[in-house]
Amino acid sequence: MIIQISSDAIADLEEGFWFYEAQSPGLGDYFRDCLIADIDSLVFYGGIHQEIYGYYRMLSKRFPFAIYYGLENDVVTVIAVLDARRNPLWIRERLN
């Protein structure tokens, strides 16, 4: 499968990076590396996750973030990378 990351999802990753980097220097890099590894695993596991709000949702292994993606013709498109602790109504609006 091919993985595409939307500009919105890249912005989400940058926002998460700066949040964790402000907590502790170097933690932002660890956050980014972990989330990119989770996204890379979609090459093998894309499409097996639960559908939420019209998108597949994969939960990150190390951080409280969810990766929302679509799947069409062996192309995984990451739509958003959102903090799973956010209000579900905010998440729904963000995905629409």
Report on this model:
The chain is of the alpha+beta class. The chain has one domain (2-95): RelE-like (YaeB-like fold, 2-Layer Sandwich), CATH 3.30.2310.20. 45% of the residues lie in helices and 29% in strands. It has 4 helices and 5 strands. It has helices at 7-23, 27-40, 42-45, 88-95; strands at 2-5, 51-52, 55-59, 65-72, 75-83. Strands 1-5-4-3-2 form a 5-stranded mixed β-sheet. Helix 1 (7-23) packs antiparallel against helix 2 (27-40). The protein is globular, with a radius of gyration of 13 Å. The two termini are 25 Å apart. The model has no long low-confidence stretch (mean pLDDT 95).
Keywords for this entry:
single chain, 96 residues, alpha+beta, YaeB-like fold, five-stranded mixed sheet, 45% helix
Helices and strands in order:
Blueprint: E1 2-5, H1 7-23, H2 27-40, H3 42-45, E2 51-52, E3 55-59, E4 65-72, E5 75-83, H4 88-95
Parallel strand pairs: 1-5
Antiparallel strand pairs: 2-3, 3-4, 4-5
Helix pairs in contact: 1-2
